[in-house]
Prior knowledge:
Blueprint: H1 3-12, H2 17-29, E1 46-48, E2 51-53, E3 57-59, H3 70-74, E4 80-86, E5 99-102, E6 107-110, H4 119-127, E7 135-139, H5 148-159, E8 165-169, H6 184-199, E9 207-211, H7 217-230, E10 234-237, E11 257-260, H8 264-277, E12 284-287, H9 293-302, E13 306-309, H10 312-316, H11 320-334, H12 340-343
Parallel strand pairs: 3-4, 3-13, 4-7, 7-8, 8-9, 9-10, 10-12, 12-13
Antiparallel strand pairs: 1-2, 5-6, 6-11
Helix pairs in contact: 5-6, 6-7, 7-8, 8-9, 9-11
Flavin mononucleotide is lined by residues 60-62, 65, 84-85, 99, 108, 110, 112, 138, 169, 172, 210, 239-240, 259-260, 263, 287-290, 309-312.
Amino acid sequence: MKLIEKLGLNALHRMDPEAAHGMSIKALKSGLTPAPGPVTTPRLKTNLAGVDLPNPVGLAAGFDKNGEVLAPLSRAGFGFIEVGAVTPRPQLGNPKPRLFRLTEDKAAINRFGFNNEGMEVMAKRLAERPKDAVIGLNLGANKDSEDRAGDFAKVLAHCAAHLDFATVNVSSPNTEKLRDLQGKAALTALLNGVIEIRDALPRPLPIFLKIAPDLTEPELQDIAEVARETRVDAVIATNTTLSRDGLRSAHKGEAGGLSGAPLFEKSTRVLAKLSQLTGGEIPLIGVGGISNAEQAYAKICAGASAVQFYTAMVYGGISLAADIAHGLDQLLARDGYDSVAEAVGSKREDWL
Ligand SMILES: Cc1cc2nc3c(=O)[nH]c(=O)nc-3n(C[C@H](O)[C@H](O)[C@H](O)COP(=O)(O)O)c2cc1C
């Protein structure tokens, strides 16, 4: 991390976390943040569910909820960017405060509840997107919707023309009963609805499913079966957790989803289990607690074809994206791999 970024982070950490996030979006808009351009090497170039990535290190959903900083993010070193979650209609989300830093634990708790400007605004911003980046959208449902399952399909239909992939997010803990949509029958119906819309598009795009880390083994088995039957293109494991195990920070009792370092092991175990249950047939994206190249590599060896991160940026800055990608390249070379794909699942057993 450069000194200027360190000073910026120190200043942000003296602010309320949600205000600090707003400032970091402003800093990105004004070009004050590192822009190393696309980080790529022949070893890092990879394919995720039919999408070519310059490197497998992505930005997780929730950082750029409204697609405000697509261009600067596309120059920050990430191999792919997921924006959103976006719902059909704009909504305010939960009352503030709703984002908490757990500094001693290198973690965060959020209970935003899908605050966003809605799909119309997002589609307009996506229409102006940089064409050389890989950009996907996290699909959400309005809290007061009469047809939550239908909301996912609605957002997809409205925004698909500008996207490289879309994610069905039924794993946010901050919208009451949303996670019930992870059950077998509800999930099958929801995914079939989304995939029907996708198949009718002039330019079909891959559909990913994002799951929670708090699922039991039978629930994971159901999800693996549904993923196979509905033929989703990839599964993202995982979203934030409701668990509070081993935390030290003052805010550990806040309600919401926990992300960052304490989530690493739990989410990697879910990833490895899912890799085993799907027999490596469905590409997986590993998310949860990644803050360095070793952890990104560990997720790949546990079964991920690509990874994403968010919370570590709060503590390590956006330059982490390029650092992790470069470090991953070195780790692959060290172990004699010529490509990311060769390493996928090579140490899955260690996490089972
Ligand atoms: C403030 C915040 C907002 C988030 N919003 C979303 C969201 O809208 N949709 C989603 O699928 N995940 C959301 N997430 C979850 C992240 O995408 C990611 O799955 C999770 O934080 C674990 O990764 P990390 O430990 O690297 O942060 C959010 C996370 C944070 C910290």
